[in-house]
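#onboarding

Welcome to the new folks! Below is a worked example of what a typical request in this channel looks like: someone posts a single protein sequence, and someone else replies with the predicted structure as tokens. Don't worry about understanding the tokens yet, we'll cover that in week two.

Example request:
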Amino acid sequence: MPVWVAVGGNPHSVVRAGTLGLPMALAIIGGLPERFAGLAQLHREALRRSGHGPAPLSLNLHGFVAGTSQAAADLYYPAHSAVMNRIGAERGWGPTDRAAFDAQVELRGAYVVGSPQQVVEKILFQHEVFGHQRTLVQLAIGDVAHRDVLRAIELLGTEVAPAVRAAVATRSSAPTPA
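Example response:
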């Protein structure tokens, strides 16, 4: 049974995963994803120092896909903000608002929310930063209509995943510059 270690930004957890030779699932639920790139490198270094070969890396993200970017944000924001505000109140975070949410939806934000093309672009951007092998998108955070979640799953499977796989395969087969 494959075992992965999930981490949310704690360097000690990252090193522990690498020392044990285990794949790492890096949760990014806010901020600029690039600021987590050092943790991916730290994991790879801990693997190497502990005598292990490479291990897969997963990014675990909040997200939603709809026919258009506006529809995705409009459908997902109310449910997402309700959950994040409840969790934030428990953890001492300030409340979120639509402007903060929209900033996280942008290319360099943490949320993978948008049209299929926008989601593809974001996953590929993050792949350039992290070189990860898996992206896990948490769709059903909060009270999103079941039919909308089913449509998001359909778009992920029929449009997003094939486009990402094709682009990553092209990158992997491209000759490295001398």
